[in-house]
Amino acid sequence: MTSGGRQRRDGSSKRVQLTSGDHGGPKDKKSKAVRKPTVQGGNASRAAKMREVQRFREAIRAAEQRRTARQNSTAATPAADADQHTPVPELPAPADSALEAHLAACIKAALSHDWSGLAVHARQLADAADRLDAEAITHELTGRPVPGATGSLSRMNSHDILQNPDEHVRFAAYLDKLGHVADPDEVDLVSRVLTDPDQTMAQSAVLRHLDRRAADLFPGPAYEGWAQAMTQATIVYPFLAQRLREWSLFRAVTLRLPWQPEDLLASSNWLQLKTAAGTNTEAIEILAEAGRTKRIRNTARTGVNHRGQS
């Protein structure tokens, strides 16, 4: 019995061992595969740039379709005395050629992976498209052909500009008028632009005009008379008056005329950065040490280093 009991006990023990859920043995489970991260490479980046180019192409194509539709609708309504006049073919607008040139430059830059060039040409393309769109809006709002058969806003008079409710159209028209104004009429035109009810837009247009004119005139003697006249026209507009004073200070620094370092250090970030990238070594060294922002100081220090190496 003892051996039989031992056998039963062994059997029971063996059964317990077989059924007790002992999992202490070696495991033979397959490990889960590690999912490899997807890395976006150069092809995806290039595809994103090409989508940007395609978006510009579609926008230009839509603008061209709208312009063509307007031309067709105008041509479909003949004037009452059309048989008494010889029709004159419409000349292509220079803006259209500009669009094509900028678009071609965008495509070329994208294909050559020149992403910085693509960004520059894309902005130029967008600006050209905005000008066409502004002219289209003017035509739709006034019911008259777009001013200027050459796609320009230069034939709009002051009354037409002020009557247009779209400040973007007025801004473009003001820039065009200011860009073509004769010297004797410049002060009067600047004063009229500044009567626009949208003062932010009007002063922005005049500021861009002042920067453009001052950049052309400051090296020569004509600048002084021009600056005095513009100061009188903008005397009640503090920001514009300050910009003229800073152009005069920049002229003095650049042409080695008398100027004071404290005036430069008290000037705006715009003037300090412009001077830091200029040619006056004394002014650059002052800004390298005491320029208002890190960008100004770094720009000045780069200029100092370049002069030290040359």
Features:
310 residues, mainly alpha, 69% helix, 0% strand, flat
Write up what this structure looks like.
- With 310 residues, this protein is an all-alpha fold.
- It has a domain at 93-151.
- The protein has helices spanning 2-19, 42-75, 94-111, 115-142, 158-163, 167-180, 186-193, 199-217, 222-233, 238-254, 261-265, 269-276, 281-290, 294-309.
- The model is unreliable at 12-22, 77-95 and 140-154 (pLDDT under 50).
Task: Give a topology summary.
Layout: H1 2-19, H2 42-75, H3 94-111, H4 115-142, H5 158-163, H6 167-180, H7 186-193, H8 199-217, H9 222-233, H10 238-254, H11 261-265, H12 269-276, H13 281-290, H14 294-309
Helix pairs in contact: 2-3, 2-4, 3-4, 6-8, 8-10, 9-10, 12-14, 13-14
In brief, what are we looking at here?
This protein is an all-alpha fold and 310 residues long. The protein has helices spanning 2-19, 42-75, 94-111, 115-142, 158-163, 167-180, 186-193, 199-217, 222-233, 238-254, 261-265, 269-276, 281-290, 294-309.
Q: Count up the helices.
A: 14
Structural class: mainly alpha
The topology string of helices and strands comes to: HHHHHHHHHHHHHH
Low-confidence stretches: 12-22, 77-95, 140-154
Strand content: under 5%
Mean pLDDT: 75
Number of beta-strand segments: 0
> Looking at the structure, what is the overall shape?
flat
Q: What fraction, in percent, of the residue positions are helical?
A: 55-70%
Radius of gyration: 36 Å
Described by strand count, sense and barrel closure, the largest sheet is: none
The end-to-end span amounts to: 112 Å
